[in-house]
Amino acid sequence: MQGILSDILPGPGVLQFILTQAAFIVLLIVIMKCLHSRCPWLPNCMIGQDAAQENTEVQVDPGTLGSTSLSDVPCPKATSQEMEEFFKDLHSPTDNRVVRKKLLHKLLVFMTKEVDHRGACLMLADMGISLEVPPDAVSLGRVERVSLVLVWDLLDSPPLLGTQALISPVVYCGPHGASFQQLCTLSFKHCAGSGTYVRVYASDTHLLASKEWEELHNKPSRQNRICITRDECQIKLDHFSLYTSVLETYGRPEVHKWLQLAVFSSPLSADQSHQQIRIYFLNNTPCALQWAHCNEEPFRGSLCGPVQLFEFANTSKDMFLVLKYLSEGWENIDENASQYVPFLHIWHGKCPFRSFCFRRKTVSPVDSPSQNTSEIIVTMHVFQKDLQEKYLEVLRLHITESGCQAERVSPKPYCNRIPRELFEQLQMLLEPNTVSGNDWRKLASRLGLCGTKIRFMSCQQSPAAATLEFFEELNGSLHDLYKIMLSMERLDCAVTVEAFLNDPLPDCPGLSQRDKDQENHCCCEGKTTSLASECDSGLTDLGSVKEREICSQTTDEHTAIQ
């Protein structure tokens, strides 16, 4: 018997080998299960055909909405019960109210109505989005639940190339696939400023599925159902899905979209040592501004005055934000006075923002008795790189305990204005008409004005003054004016301009000696200071004399500027 068993059973070495291999296999299975349940990347890689069959997708947590870097880590796959609760909440009637709610990591703004044969109109107030269900679209005796949803999840936007710009929000009409007897009309805003290069995109999927964006203009059956105006898209729908619009530039540099620059800050309190302002670069659509308000709620930030429009060019140039002036008693925490936003972050509509944080200086009242840090005055320049001479916005902020106010300052450099005394002398010399026409008329001709415009100038109270003002509008320098006078052989005018180039400016009320020196320097140099070279100049450089004059006057009116 013992011999038989010894022949059947393996030896000790073989048995040990089998047990070792079995333990290794069990350990490997346990590790794979742990990785499958814990690792956030593995389910996304393995989802494959299962996700397509179940018509679901792995959700991605957007993290801090509006930041320039979104999280790439997917959230756990939604279960059937979670999806059921999601659509139950989304398609429950809201009693004519607009609801803002976060469902399954998606921030949504929506309205749901029960619609019968009489039709209805769903409108998201302050968002510029509406859905009209006409009469008889629903059969008599039936009631359909209709939802209009603004999707504030940036990851649901269509994937874009560098030549494409997102110019509209992503809008969802639900339930997905619902059809009606009459065409419904969906309307939403875009920021292209023209409908020439605007294309409507749709994803024939529900809100939680993997998006499959395609251009509706490529479908002959849909082309006649799309109407695009200078600021709105109107689509006739035969069934419900997701929609947005994209700006197709086709490599044309003249194509642009309009932004709104929105500055937010919280009121200033007497006991706080730091103050922060945030500047948003948003598409010029109502819902983008409302998103910024929503994003500011945790910071208790409020909009500082009206937004400023900006023409954002298709040049692949980044946006720069330069701090040009900060009132006394405060200092910028960051040593660099300039920040930039990558071109594609704005072009693809990611709603980026940049912030500046200021710190109250600790100065003894004995050393600086006139300083009062109960308010802050800030001046900033906003421009695209290498385009500051064409597209430039100057923002001036006034932050107090009662809130923040913003105003737009003319970006035209004051140092290119002809000094008043010189202006009057040239006006007196050029005003009289000469037989040869070598007067204000020849100057107007040298500036490119045609005969019709010169005749219009002659009807002005002072044609010479009107011509000199036109020269100022061209941002010409005194050096340019001096050369023009020499070419006109008006040596009397050239000598007068040369005297101002060589001598300091006369006393002028409202300007300090430093301002006059700087203005004289700008005029004598014959050019404005380049903003690109000023990015690292620090806060002591106020940019232009006009801004310095404003700040100087403000300092006179207020004993302290925060």
UniProtKB/TrEMBL annotation:
Assigned protein family: Belongs to the unc-5 family.
UniProt cross-references to PANTHER family, sorted A to Z: NETRIN RECEPTOR UNC5 (PTHR12582), UNC5C-LIKE PROTEIN (PTHR12582:SF41)
Transmembrane spans: 14-32
GO cellular component, one term: plasma membrane
Record PROSITE patterns: ZU5
Main subcellular location: membrane
Keywords: Developmental protein, Immunoglobulin domain, Membrane, Receptor, Transmembrane, Transmembrane helix
Membrane topology per record: Single-pass type I membrane protein; Single-pass membrane protein
GO MF term (any one): netrin receptor activity
Entry protein name: Netrin receptor UNC5
Cited InterPro entries: DEATH-like_dom_sf, Death_dom, UNC5A-D, UPA, ZU5_dom
